[in-house]
Amino acid sequence: MPEQGDTNLVRQESAMPGLGLLLDETRMQEFLARRFPEHEISPVRSCYARYKPGTSCIVSYRMRVDGKAIRFYARCHNPRGAIKLDNALERRPIAGPLGDGVIVDEAMATTIYVFPNDHNIRAMRVFDEDRRPRRLRRIMPSHPELARCKLKILRYKPERRAVARLTLRRVPRATIRMYPASFFPDARARAWAFSSQGSLRIPTVIGDSSRYCAISYEWIDRAPLTEVLDDPVAFCAESERAGDALASLHRQRPALHSMYTAGDLCSAIESSVALAKTLNPEITERVSSLCDKLLQALMLHPWTSQAVHGDFSPDQVLTDEHYVSVIDFDRAGYGDPLLDIGSFGAQLILLESEGKLAPSQAEACLQHLCEGHRAGYSADDRSVRLFTACALLRLLPEPFRYRKSRWTEKMAGLIERAEELWIPEAVDA
Fold it and tell me: Which site in 129, 146, 183, 414 is 20 to 30 Å from 398, CA atoms measured?
């Protein structure tokens, strides 16, 4: 059965005839089974969604076809919009387990892309085994030995970004990040912007290609911070080391064009809150009141401008006994360092809400991050709470986006945590 929140959303979004199919895993399985009766299709599991009210929705899935695990995604849109289904076949699809790599259903204004087909990310075609060596040589011309690597997808947001690991003789050798053409110039500039300093290590770029809109990095053989979540002492200690590395990053002066102002943050919060209210109208009054209070406080905050990661979180930090590596600079720019601290704190609370961190551990780890960071930037507790609460509001759509069960309840839980952070009496005490 689909989530009640999904059912309500489909009911209110009558402009997209395919939305009900995309948000109902059972219907999607039945649709594919009817379309491909010669194949055995297992239950479908959705894992990511990106929704633009009144315009379009993309949902990615995993399933098994004749026992083989595959990924695919579906995109539906408002038939009155500018998107045309004919564009789905403008490039030759890569055939897969279902035969057809791209499936179009005009009646529901829906297109299905079977991995590795992607409407926007050209470099995904590197997963086509017949042409992989030639394409990898073009992306990494200085490393011809990597042309025979096997690829495993690590992260994938359809039509936005894909990250894969390159393995040679069962040994990880590199990662490759793939982008749409419109994202690539900024991604390339950010990839080269920062340098390793002290205990901070930045992954070395070993190849990039404007033709394929892909960037390859050396493989970093260090454990992500999220691997020690079940050890509170170790996680807090590693968070403090991450804070020191973050301070080193903030002290750099890279050649970046993106500038994040207080107004930009306010706009980002308002956008996330507006989407959250569309997804879950029941939170409208409560989240609107909180949003107004936070925006007022932000405009009074003495904004500073330093280099920032832009999307700092525990899974962007890799550690060993000597170094702390920071990865994924796709949102790097100049802004207040508290953007990164608040982002890290909000992600800790999200992990806590999912049961991956023990209760109250998020606050303790954030304090350790701030302790490690204070040598480079002094942040008072009130400001940390403000930026963490703001980051939580930006994460409000995440339970829906990552297809969590009872996502409407989880969304309300994030609002409650943000309110706890920004109760005036508690903050001013």
Answer: 183
